Amino acid sequence: MSVYRGCDIPGDLFFDVDRDVWIRPAPDGTLTLGLTDPAQTRSGKVLHILFKKPGRHLDAGQSAATIETAKWAGPFPTPVSGTIAETNEATFRADILIANRDPYGAGWIVRLEPDEWAPEAQGLVTGEAAVQRYETRIDELGLNCFRCAD
Questions:
Q1: Whole-structure pTM over 0.90, yes or no?
Q2: What structural domains and CATH numbers belong to the chain?
Q3: Helix, strand, or coil here: 132?
């Protein structure tokens, strides 16, 4: 994992940098999605999250959840098309700040069964390319990441 200006950028994930969404493919073919570290820093403490129901099909760009934070409210867009297999609603109900504390682990948002992962993955970045894109974006935003405390 690379750290730049306090922002974690795991090289093993896929990123939609413009939407600040990460994707982790699982061996069973599902995709886990969540907010990036820069996204949770920019948006502030999560106050509320409303998840779309499992079983719902989403096209790329559609919202899988609506997130309300201390500084922002809006959609959590999925960069790929697929069906919601699972949400992390129970975890957020128990600890609303989990995405602020652990954005790449327990703070995941949804799991999708993708329609076609390989073609849609072409528009995402991973590895060193992702690190370089995020370093540029972090510099442009003048961002220094931090984790929320209670």
A1: yes
A2: 2-137 (2.40.50.100)
A3: helix
